[in-house]
Amino acid sequence: MPVIYHITSCNEWEAAFAKGSYAAPSLETEGFIHCCTRSQVQGVLQRYFKGATDLVLLEIATEKIQSRLVYEWSPAGADEFPHIYGPINTDAVISTGSPFNL
Question: What pLDDT is attached to residue 102?
């Protein structure tokens, strides 16, 4: 089962879980939710979450995502990253944990 990852705050995830779907602020500002592969997690942490501690890593089953998933080139990461064009249904999240333990 292919999986992708998304990093968010514990508070944002708890609110989303109670609601049944998760929408990162980037969905409104950029039109998609930024995700990454397992090998990209550490780079994303270093570039965008330096010093943050209240984080959760969402492990997302790609076949369960109801919104459109597209892999697109990102100059910032010099790689293709998965982007989700819509909210993430919480039942697509198969596990949560600390991004610092990968």
Answer: 63
- For tokens 């049944």, name the residue: 20
Burial 9-33 (b: 16+ CB within 10 A, else e): eeebbeebeeeeebbbeebeeeebb
Q: Where are the domains of the chain?
A: 3-101
- Residues 46 and 22: their CA atoms lie apart, in Å, by 23
Tokens, residue 85: 């064009």
Span 76-90, pLDDT tens digits? 878 999 999 999 999
- Structurally, at CATH architecture level, domain 3-101 sits in Alpha-Beta Barrel (3.20)
